[in-house]
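Hey team,

Filing this mostly as a record. A colleague (T.K.) asked me to run one chain through the structure pipeline before their review meeting, and I want the input and output archived in the tracker in case anyone asks later how it was produced. No errors, nothing strange. Just documentation.

Input sequence:
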Amino acid sequence: MSEDGASDGARVVLGVSGGIAAYKACEVLRGLTESGHEVRVAPTRAALRFVGSATFEALSGNPVRTDVFEDVPEVAHVRLGQRADLVVVAPATADLIARAAHGLADDLLTSTLLTARCPVLLVPAMHTEMWEHPATRHNVATLRARGVVVAEPASGRLTGVDSGKGRLPDPDEIVDLARLLLADPAALPRDLEGRSVVVSAGGTREPLDPVRYLGNRSSGRQGFALARVAAQRGAEVTLVAANTADLPVPAGVELRRVETAEQLRGEVFAAASGADAVVMSAAVADFRPAEHAAHKIKKTGSDPAPVELVRNPDVLSELVEARRTGALSTGLVVGFAAETGDPDTGVLEHGADKLARKGCDLLVVNAVGDGRAFEVEDNAGWLLASSGERRPLPHGAKSLLASRVWDAVGGRFVGN
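Output structure:
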């Protein structure tokens, strides 16, 4: 096992069906191989009209077959699925989804889907009308009922002038979902369907002048992972993101961009009304400059004037208080605490104190500094509950930690 919990050198079958998004499968393939996995590509005949087999062979280092009558002595149409640790189909067209739902096995890819006993991830890509058609919705529901993970597609530009839901998610997002399923095959249940959640992410920036600001090192990756996993578990997700322009928008997520703590507070409160859960993973600046200079502050021969700071709103505490008084109808409130510890008090104790002060239902405590948590791909910590329960969150990919948080949130929804 690697540090993120995913199996080292896992055997992955990458299916590619015949849509224009097939070219993006090359980036998915590269991401999987660079993660150390052995990948066999199983394209449909139509997929090879978009991307040639030579490309897939060069990137995977393995031969490419499409037909059950090729490589007959190896019984490839059975062996690929039997030996796989994960099957990913990206893109999965409406036709491929229909054939998989009805158990057809007329080529190597659909035969592999029938023989696979490992996790299967289908990543749809098609025009909006096809995705929303009752036949496709029925086929998707059928596959999900069988335990297949059918990802939510993204929204955006399709082919030609068309735009809407049905776009293939960003290749990095697909690779992240694949790695998550390798680390935990049960990480993406559809247990949040019908739920509305709000996630804050990133680090706020408080302007000093038009050039400079007071900020922090949060990249937003953990918040984006929380939003991505929640959407793939069926939730309606609003993501309030502070200064995260370099991160692709997760598929199936409504994104609201902000910069400052005041802006974040306004968007979170607007989205939180009626939400089943609010997860405050953003690093909200505690202070801001008392004054914002209209022009760039120039360096002069004298010492710079001291910068006076004032407190920013405590968004987490305000959410809890608004819920208590009935001013805001929202469900669970989950906070995050980035702690370093000090000579007298450890990280976990600081987190427990924050949970008591803030009054939220759950609190994720992260140890930060020395290359931990901020600006990296992995995370670890503890999940503290208002009931007194303390649950370790082992080191792993941020999407894996996100799934553990939603496990806890979803568990509290049961029976409600």
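Quick notes for T.K.: The longest strand covers residues 332-339. Residues 11-183 form a domain with the Rossmann fold fold (CATH 3.40.50.1950).
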